[in-house]
Amino acid sequence: MQKIHLTTVNKKTIIPVTLTVIQTFATWLIPSMYGHQVSTTIQHTFTNQVILILFVFMFNFLIFDRFTNKMPIPIFLGMTGISILVVAFSFSSIAPTIGLLLFTCLLSLLPFLFSAKNNWAGWLLFAISSMFILPETFFYVQCGFLSTNFLKILIIPLLSALFFFYPFFIKEISHSGIFNLILGILCVGLTVLGNLNTYTLIAGLLVLISWGYQQFAKQPKLLLTVNVILCLFFNVLILMK
């Protein structure tokens, strides 16, 4: 049997690609689960949904690459340019507003071009993009309209993204752990107050597990993998009845 030997580049790419698949699935799953509860006729073609998924995949890959593989800047900028072209040509004619929102998401990549210990802008933009703008965009493409009720539902996923991805963007501030704990408590509090059941209690436990693991984790890539998975499970649980 022929053995497959992975090159160093392939091994380094496995982690960001795996994380990208999980995060892209999470971004797609939230509006899809909610969309099944809405009676509507799909307004956009399957092709548009596939294009949007490809854009979200590339967006997440570029973010996670900065935390893991760190491809050369010219390649990074080239892939960013491709993402912009995808947005421009895919949605400018059928939904200019959607194209503008997706372009806003790409602004999350700009702070990575500067070497700063605390990437506040990137943290906020990524969380807002990943768990607010992109899920609402998926909902629009799937159902054909924007929902204010769905925007309200996205508040907790947004807080969860701020919590789970905080340690990778913000690395050097005083009492960082306490600040992140406050985010976690706020996220759990709103979740439990909104709908107290077994699923939301388990979701709250996942937040506690993540925060506890952050306090002694020595491998950033492993912590990132754990938090991406926990973020997915958290958001699935809060949407379950």
UniProtKB/TrEMBL annotation:
Keywords: Membrane, Transmembrane, Transmembrane helix. It comes from the Bacteria. The chain crosses the membrane at residues 12-34, 46-64, 71-91, 97-114, 121-141, 153-169, 181-210, 222-240. This is Integral membrane protein. It comes from Pediococcus inopinatus.
